[in-house]
Amino acid sequence: MSTIADVARLAGVSTASVSRYLSGQRVREHEAIEKACIELRYRPNPTARSLRSGRTRSIGVVVPDITNPYYAAVVKGIQDVTLDGPYHVFLSGTEESAERQHDVLVELTGRADGLILIPATEQSEPSRELRPSRIPVVLVDREAEDVHAFDSVVVDNAGGARLAAEHLLELGHERIAIIGGPLNTTVGRERHAGFVDTLTAAGVEMDPSHDEEGGFNVEGGYQAALRLLGSRPAPTAIFSTNNLMTIGLLRAVNELGVRTPGEVSVIGFDDLDLGALLTPPLTCVSRPTEAQGALAMRLLLRRLEESDDAAPRKATRIVMDVALTVRGSTGPVPTPAPKRRR
Amino acid sequence: MSTIADVARLAGVSTASVSRYLSGQRVREHEAIEKACIELRYRPNPTARSLRSGRTRSIGVVVPDITNPYYAAVVKGIQDVTLDGPYHVFLSGTEESAERQHDVLVELTGRADGLILIPATEQSEPSRELRPSRIPVVLVDREAEDVHAFDSVVVDNAGGARLAAEHLLELGHERIAIIGGPLNTTVGRERHAGFVDTLTAAGVEMDPSHDEEGGFNVEGGYQAALRLLGSRPAPTAIFSTNNLMTIGLLRAVNELGVRTPGEVSVIGFDDLDLGALLTPPLTCVSRPTEAQGALAMRLLLRRLEESDDAAPRKATRIVMDVALTVRGSTGPVPTPAPKRRR
DNA sequence: CCGGTAACAGACAACGATTACAGTCGTTCG
DNA sequence: CGAACGACTGTAATCGTTGTCTGTTACCGG
């Protein structure tokens, strides 16, 4: 690769002039410089640039799992906002591991001007790790231990779970099960609490054996569903708290040949790509995805712009609304005639 | 952030010694240095490191669309191989645009030691852009104009399309339609040719109005499917050449209330996440995804290791096999009794 | 006790860009 | 006509790290 010195030599000027030309300043020999740049196929070395200027013009996005369509959609939203901005987006995956996340954050600090992070776990302390570097961070979906240190964009998990519970109650269900996520995540806790509390408030007690917990993945949902569907008396409705778990749940339902919603109603948190095309189509709590990413990116850009002025703005926390999408996978209670109906 | 000079000062040694300590060499004052590093929370500046050493210890992965589960799976395969290696993986999306891809490649060149690229189009000339920088590149899935310049990992597209055609022929179909991808991509051309040639060889002529072409996305598949299902006589079987197009096709089938496989058989290239859970479950040509990514990464690592010795190895081209997954969405021809059956 | 040799130390020059500083012109105005 | 000014220019320092080069030890055998 050719360097700025090569260009300067060929154009017969100093490197300073070339640098000035590149940054858009008026330069006498700009024609010769342009010609030299083209002839040498000169591209400024981004590493050298970053070292000197202290800014990398790139931002890092860290997600637990790239293959999860939900995260993919969030990333999409982020990218859309950056499309013709000066920043380049780098994506890294942490495989849902706190250790990997630590490595990735260390790697990214100093390589990026800002970070959008979907934490893998809450034990992992982004604050302790990230604080000294002073680079702006926006948390998405899950929150870290000290919420107040960073901007964040989350959804109303408890509210969404409440919507699901209310929907099932309205259909007359009373033997209701939940496939919850890890309780050491805010998301897992909030959805679990929102759901169970709503049932309790309505006087419906959940059988402890119908309160399943698993990892936020297909296998977790599958195993939990097998246990639930095998229990006696079996639940008449199951709420799955994560898209991947819902896939596992559906797989189990399918394998066991359980009729939906005839024998068991199914409702998930998060829509699926093909949710509307399933038989029956999936009833779910749906939430903004791309919009969530876009919002996070805008928050980050605001931080990046303000960074030089000394007054640190207080952390912003945005809670986005979720909605209930009623399709065909939920229906009235099967055996005993429904008690009430709307 | 503290620098190596701060550490050296605190430990009472030279920066060279600190550098040596960090690179694992034996150093007399290693205890004092370690102490100083911890106290100052010292992290080597990756930018400065890269500038000096000429290597970034990171590799770039460029995909057309992050939200496509197929690409996500490829990336997953890539990451798994890198898990505990020295390289960090950065992912960038090009939104299927040649222009964006150009920008991304420029951005990445000099920021990464190697590249894994799934080209957005073939017109875009990665070779012209990437050649001068001399960094190793591995192409995945689609190939660029001059195949021989880079290592590549692809699948047997023509073979997969042939499998699909043969399957439909065996079921007795004769009015067969294809929803093809852009013919300016190798993938689009190969799948189209493999399918049509197989039909022709079997003496089955395809109605020109049953030869649809669209973008590799949901909308393209949807629109094409609407046209096909509205044509008279309508095809008794439809082959969709891409996973997103298949989703569009299924959506159209669903909306129009066309029975599958009763009225029309559906077969897709690439499986879907929920393919097995659909009603009927999707028959498709499935191919390795994570394995493809893993293989590409291994190829790249090999290149990165050899880079210093002067003899440039010839480009490797790996073609991976695909397989037919027969599920329920394909069946015998509806109205006229099937001519032959196995 | 001395010369030779490991084994380590520090000083300093890179890497490729940006930028403060100090010229050097040509032009304009009093 | 000379001074002041504007519009540029080049020189050189700098960013944080690594690697080369040249010491400086300590320890060994003779």
Write up this protein.
Two copies of one chain form a homodimer. By secondary structure, chain A is of the alpha/beta class. Chain A is 41% helix and 15% strand. Chain A is built from twelve helices and twelve strands. Chain A has helices spanning 4-11, 15-22, 30-40, 46-53, 69-82, 98-108, 126-130, 157-170, 186-201, 218-230, 243-256, 290-306, and strands spanning 58-63, 88-93, 114-117, 137-140, 151-155, 176-180, 211-213, 237-240, 265-269, 283-286, 317-320, 323-325. In chain A, the strands form two sheets. In chain A, strands 2-1-3-4-5-11 form a six-stranded parallel beta sheet, with helices on both faces. In chain A, strands 7-6-8-9-10-12 form a six-stranded mixed beta sheet, sandwiched between helices. In chain A, helix 5 (69-82) links the parallel strand 1 (58-63) and strand 2 (88-93). Residues 337-342 of chain A have low confidence and may be disordered. Chains A and B meet through helix 4, helix 5, strand 2, helix 6 and helix 11 of A and helix 4, helix 5, strand 2, helix 6 and helix 11 of B. Chain B binds a DNA duplex (30 and 30 nucleotides) through helix 2 and helix 4.
